[in-house]
Amino acid sequence: MCGICGFTIATGGAARLVFGYDSYGNTCGQRNEPIEGVRLSGLDHTDRKFVFFLDPCNIDIIQRKIKSMALCVSQCPTEELATYYDLKRFAMINGSELCSYELPGHKYPQLPERFEKCPKLPVPESKALPVFNRCTPVDISCYAKFAEAVVTFVSGNSMLNRLIAGVAASKEIIVGLCLLALVLSMILMVIIRYISAVLVWILTALVVLGSLGKSSGLGWCFLLLISILLLPQGILLLLMLFMRKRVALTIALFHVAGKVFIHLPLLALQPFCTFLALSLFWVYWIMVLLFLGTTGNPEKNEDTGLVEFRLTGALQYMTWYHAVGLIWISEFILACQQMTVAGAVVTYYFTRDKTKLPVTPILSSVLRLVRYHLGTVAKGSFIITLVKIPRLILMYIHNQLKGKENACARCMLKTCICCLWCLEKCLNYLNQNAYAATAINSTSFCTSARDAFMILVENALRVATINTIGDFVLFLGKILIVTCTAFAGVLALNYQRDYTEWVLPLIIVCLFAFLVAHCFLSIFEIVVDVLFLCFAIDTKYNNGTPGREFYMDKALMVSHR
């Protein structure tokens, strides 16, 4: 991907995007080489640094570009020019000719070509965009046609108007509630170890009572079949009794995970770091994509006579490679987060004396990742990419064929998409445990994945219990944060009596609260999964006898007994 970026810079695509180019293939602000078959190419535009469109308001909404001849000029029009004499005067005074290069400025009013090769009158006052040097009309009403559909829809819809007005009037409250959701998420990560036990046993009691209630009700109605009806409930009760130790282990893991965040508070900043890394990469990716849009061989459009740059031959596949890179590196960044968290948690677990923990376990984990394990996370993220790309392609085909394919084809497409989604989730879970095994044993990805898989198979019932109950508890945590934020939002927005004025701000706040809660509790979930893998390995190789003492926390030791 760096090679693609270098190619766009070396071939002038980056310069054409930043400095702009005219309709004859000349880059503004520099000396140009002639293009074969294109007149007026190869001009020296050292003094012409700005791109000027003859008709800047002629916008093709579908193609998302301005359908106008572009020229390189030395100065954007600083005032409205209503006549061709004004164009002549501007050219004579400022030395900036706004008509095509072959037309002399002092003859603008008399030339018959002025109607095709001069700007559309009146020429609006313009200012150059910072960095990109495009002359843009000061009066944005120039783009009225472009925005007409949106403006008409908004102004013609009184309900939408009131919703937008409600958001604008409540922006300070929205920001405050979003910060509240952020604080609540961070607090919950610490206190969840105290409430997890209550939530888990309430869930267990509800399942048992619900089962008994169902059996009792049905038993009175069908007395003759009561023995058959009670059989599943009896099995369920025995199963709950059999699983009680595994439920206790889940509670203990949540308790220890809370301690981890107390000893390693910087773990709570991992969502911010990951979001920052993803944002920087996405900005870079979009920038290079824009560079690719102005890279390639110059081609003359036979319909308009203007020059466009297009990638041809094998070079056109660079865009597809760049798209694959978006998926792979995004997954790579997320995998780096998982490896960093796993490394820090492993250090915590296998340090007997917690007072002797490294000063910065998370920084140490990052350094180990960069020094030893980049290949591991690259391979793991690449496997996810190989599954994600076919799923995205099938989703695209499904959307394109919506309403056109028969029922059988639609069913097959949805089935394939669902299977690939399930496979991706399973691989994600296995990768996460492979990263934890890598952090413990410093083995390669394949070896770590095999070891982690064997550990998970040996502890299948424990894994099922932790994933089922743990996911439910974390889901309740997310609901708790959203509910508290929504309640605070209702109290804060209560002064706006009309519900249409506060319903949209409340929806925005609730969506943000759920997103924040999901990000933070996902880190908590990773910590729980890594702790369980450490616990499983600890119990496999140690038995508590002298010389083979357990590393586990006392809470886990109680549940292990």
Automatic annotation (TrEMBL):
Transmembrane segments: 163-184, 191-211, 217-240, 247-268, 274-292, 326-350, 472-496, 502-535
Keyword Transmembrane helix among record annotations: yes
UniProt keyword terms in alphabetical order: Membrane, Transmembrane, Transmembrane helix
GO cellular component: a single term: plasma membrane
Pfam families: Choline_transpo
Classification via InterPro entries: Choline_transptr-like (IPR007603)
Compartments it resides in: Cell membrane; Membrane
Main subcellular location of this protein, as a coarse class: membrane
One MF term in the entry's GO annotations: transmembrane transporter activity
Recorded topology in the membrane: Multi-pass membrane protein
Family label: Belongs to the CTL (choline transporter-like) family.
Function, as annotated: Choline transporter.
Protein name per Swiss-Prot or TrEMBL: Choline transporter-like protein
Lineage: Eukaryota, Metazoa, Chordata, Craniata, Vertebrata
